[in-house]
Design goal:
Length: 65
């Protein structure tokens, strides 16, 4: 399976939606851990990179450099 390519400022959909009902997350920090921010309520969470790769469903908006 090909690895999903994601980067800072991309908007992604996760396999599980946030309890607020939204399922659009913006990547706001990249590193060993990935910080994503819910576009619905503004809540942000920190997820280990490996786990993020498993939990992310698809990239909705690819940020242009
Ligand atoms: Zn939310």
């Amino acid at each position: 399976m090909e690895e999903k390519q994601f980067g800072i400022n991309d908007v992604v959909e996760m396999k599980k939606q946030h309890p607020c009902g939204a399922n659009r997350w913006k990547i706001i920090r990249m590193g060993m851990d990935i910080r994503i921010k819910c576009e619905g309520c503004g809540h942000s969470v920190l997820i280990p990179r490996k786990e993020f790769g498993r939990k992310m469903k698809k990239i909705l908006v690819k940020h242009e450099e």
